[in-house]
Amino acid sequence: MSRAVTALFAALEALLVVGVGVGIPLAVLTVLWAFQYGLQVDWIVFWRAAADTWLLGHGVDVTMTLSPALALGIGVSGAATPFIITIAPLGFALITVLLGARAGRRIGETPHRQLGTVVSVAVFAALSLAVTLSALFASARASIWQGTLLPTLCFAIGLAIGVELGRRSLGEPEPGSPGSSLRDWIADWRPEARSTIATGLRAGAASAGVVIAVSAVAVALLLLTSYAKVITLYEGVHAGVLGGIALTVGQLALLPNLIIWAASWLIGPGFAIGTGSSVSPFGTSLGPIPAVPVLGALPSAHQLGWGFLSILVPVLAAFFVAVLLRRVLVRELGTVPRTRWLLLAGAIAGVTAGVVLGLLAWASAGSAGPGRLVDVGPSPWLTGAFAALEVGIAAIVGMLAGRTTTSV
Fold this sequence. Notes:
Structural class: mainly alpha
Number of strands: 7
Strand content: under 5%
Distance between the termini: 58 Å
């Protein structure tokens, strides 16, 4: 494959990812425009809405300015002045990362992967900028620099993962010359330090992964058990069939956020649906909440019961992960005094889990509107701190569990 063909192929991959991402909300809104609005509204309005939705899904801030009549009809304090929406429906970012990984794997199998990577990222950035500029409007204005950078960053992360997978599928050696790469620098560390840090990172990441997996199951169960309440909220919206479909697509894009919020709930801090509200294992205090049907699955105060026991999820996850990984670490340490290394591995696991879950909480939270809706989602600092403490202590106990033949 020549360089020109590789460059063209990479550009088309970037175009496909942007097209799919923007096309999902645009297809739904176009059907809404055609059948529910009878083509009476300018289609460009729906294009802007689809573009803004895609940009929001990648963390781009959108400044909203409502007309006086609409602001009065909403009846929310602060709606009459410009406000910023910062909460990201992470489903769109997830789609971009996954499609980017797919594109990267295909590019990684070409002989000019570096050229393909550069071209693909550059084309994606140009397309993202074009989408941002095309959606600018007085009532909804996305940040231009964020609209260019943040979707491109999501794509680049997926692309890098895919390129590495493509390279490995070809069985090629690691790139770089001896002594010039990060891998070579790490190779100069003491063997005990390398093994301990690697084990701690694996334990922390695995513990965070288990918490997220349990959270996904919990969200699914809540949706199933609260089905009647969710349907009631759908009927109360009076959106019609097509409007209901559009609303469902938007809620699916928020599903990763809900899973992360559930993870924060399991960890302890919980999350907020508006300033002054709280949904946690220790109690639920909610004021007026948006008429979003999926929020009907929120646990009420009388449903909590022994909800505070949910913190056992990250604790048990970290303990059992540490017990499993301890065997590998002990074997690699050999006859070296191991207690301090086991303690360090557990501490690293806690920090890693705290950073991972704190960053996820940060990505899932933000402002969803004016007034009290400026605070929606979990606190990243509290989520990260609680996760680091719970996972760290449990991982240390797990690492020290079992017989230790040598000491410090």
